Amino acid sequence: MTEEQAALLLAGMNEVIRAGEETRRLRAEMIKTFADLGWTQDRIARLTEVSQPAVSKQVARYKRGELPPPLELSLQQYDTPWLEGRLWGLAEALSESLADTAHCTRHVHALARGRKRFTPRHVDALRRLVEEDLRAHRSDLPGAYRTAYDEISRGLDVPSKAAADMVGAGSSAAVVTASMRRALAQQIQRVRLRDDC
Prior knowledge:
single chain; about 200 residues; about 75% helix; globular
């Protein structure tokens, strides 16, 4: 094995490790959110597939102020990672709705497997593919898809001052990594589309 091959192999492994660490932090955020909603620790443990003592430890850490404040679970957030996550969730929903024949399907799979990153170029490409799918299948898709895309697109085109202030002011959006915010927004967008359709 050459040094270059080893570097590529380790880079891939490091990316998986980082993704795992970010997922664990996101799960900790979700545990806190569920506890704040009044869910029992047993119920949270069952849903998150974490032991009840581990859930209890996470909740206690929040009470001691060791972890950041809980994430806001509203779609109406306009920082770039959140909007990119919403776009990703919309593209996944489109791909599933169109039985993987959507123009955006390959791009969605590449993002999910980590072959593509959320660079401005890849986000623009995904936007064009989603827009093409929405145009080509207008009569087959629920109006909620177009509404979500219009809101996401406006937010990406004109970053709001409120989003800049939110991230700059040390809110939970600033504390949580961009990839965690993307992943959370992706899931919330999918749930919202499922509920609206």
